[in-house]
Amino acid sequence: KKGYIDLVPVPFARIPVISARCPRTSIAFDICMDNARAVENSTLLKEYASLDNRVRDLILLVKVWAKANRIGSARFSMLSSYSWSILVIFFLQRIDFVPNLQCHSFIKAHQSLEDICVDSRCDKFLSAIEVLSAGIWKPPNSTITISSLLFGFFSFYHTKYDSKHFTISVRLAN
Fold it and tell me: Which of 83, 38, 81, 88 is nearest to 59 (CA)?
């Protein structure tokens, strides 16, 4: 308890967590136990963010925007922080800014066959280092600004994405 403030247990959540905040940075966070899927999901997000700094920056901008507009909290039946991250990754996949790290043919092209098994379900994904060092995927244009990516994110979900007929899947990237 020492060092953190606003410690709140959430025992009846789908995955029980403890919410807290760092007093020095005011960054809020959740801690959960015995949830290997969450660790795997976080690792996948880290790999996407490691492909290009603008990926991480866009995720953070969107999450800050969602929180400022009070639409970024699963606790209040809104999209979770993780869901906003997935929306960003999906958008970046659709504009070919990032590759699909879980695409089987992309994995085979990199000759990486390591299985990652969680909860008796095996998933594979490439690390950013594997992708960047193999030279198969070309990194995005370095002149694309974070502001144009942010505008593109909002434009994509406002005008191009048909939520009535399609779902979002980072794994399938379609």
Answer: 88
Residue 152: what are its φ and ψ, rounded to 5°?
A: -60, -40
Q: What DSSP line would sit under 95-157, residue for residue?
A: TTSS--TT-HHHHHHTT----EEETTEEE----HHHHHHH-SSPPPPTT--HHHHHHHHHHII
Global pTM? 0.77
CB 102 within 8 A of CB 123: yes
The rounded distance, in Å, linking the Cα atoms of 103 and 46 is 17
Instruction: Say if CB 17 and CB 32 are below 8 A apart.
Output: yes
Q: Which of 30, 14, 28 has the alpha carbon at shortest distance from 77?
A: 14
Which residues of the chain, if any, have pLDDT below 70? 1-2, 75, 111-123, 173-174
Q: Which tokens hold the place of 171? A: 């794994």
**74 and 63 Cβ atoms separated by less than 8 Å:** no
pLDDT of residue 173: 64
Counts for the chain of helices (H) and strands (E), in that order = 6, 5
- What confidence tens digit (pLDDT) does each residue in 105-122 have? 777 777 654 544 444 444
Amino acid, res. 56: R
